[in-house]
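FORM 7B - TANDEM STRUCTURE REPORT

SECTION 1: FIRST PROTEIN
SEQUENCE AND TOKENS:
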Amino acid sequence: MVKLFQNDITYQYPWSTTTIGFWSKYPNPHSTHVLSIDTLSRSVDEETGILRTERIIKARQGVPMLGVSEDAWVREIVWVDPIAKITSTVSINMSLSEYVQCIELISYARDPTSPPGTSSTLFTQRAHISSPPSGLPPYAPSTGPGHPLSKSMSRILRKVGAKLESSSVERFGMNAGTGKTGFEGVLQGVQERLDAEGQVFEREVGDGA
């Protein structure tokens, strides 16, 4: 069984500001669990202008109910489409996947309903969570050919998996609020820097004139 977490937010900043903020999202005081981000590759499609970036994120992560806390690794791919003005990401956990698998899809896109003279960005988040990741194994662990799972063991594994999925969804919900607060702070800082740079540019142009 797969559980779905959904989260939709409207940020009162233009897509360009939000995308700049995405690249400088970490570290921030509300996301201390993110320890490092390493870029593996980056390329631009010459025909479409789409920027593709692959990263590995290291975070302090725990497995719900199991009491396990360790450094976890997440693979993330990011696409930035400057024409359509959409920034999208897909990420999957590389660590602890024997307990829970999470595929997270995120996008930042222009809000087409913004009133004239304003600009905002729609944030959509979808997380597909499953445990066990590939369904129940057909055989019990064994050094030999293995023995088929009993009905009682199958029921136990399904119950544990369902609780892990529910706990993971609940954690996503709790993290959503602090994540929004942290990103709002990042966006405010980005907008202030852009405004300051714009004022400097205007003064320089004025002096040159």
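SECTION 2: SECOND PROTEIN
SEQUENCE AND TOKENS:
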Amino acid sequence: MTSTATATFELDKWEPQAQDETGGTEFARVAIAKTFTGAVEGASTVEMLTASNPTSRAYVAFERLSVSVDGRKGSFVLRHTAGDEGLSLLILAGSGSGELTGISGSAAITQDEAGNHTFTLTYELPAV
């Protein structure tokens, strides 16, 4: 059965680690930390690689969430890919642990005009 959990999150850390501006396209590595509040409660760390130039931007990232989802505690990894074609956030198969073992699904992030982030997780978990 598919479930949905919604939360807000705060960016606790945004630290560029390295940059390379060769050939007109800048590469950067960014370390990120977030805190989630709501039906997803806990924290995450993110390793992001970005590429940008005057006409295009894209990133790939892996995010390890150590959270409770609708009261079930554990961790899992989200795989981010984003570019001009849009954003995709997928749970990495086999990455769930604790009460989130076997989790699968996807997520979405939206930002309102005030800059507040909403995280929506659409997921499936094996029956307990």
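SECTION 3: OBSERVATIONS ON SECOND PROTEIN
Residues 3-124 form a domain with the AOC barrel-like fold (CATH 2.40.350.10).
The chain has a mean pLDDT of 95.

SECTION 4: SIGNATURE
Preparer initials: ____
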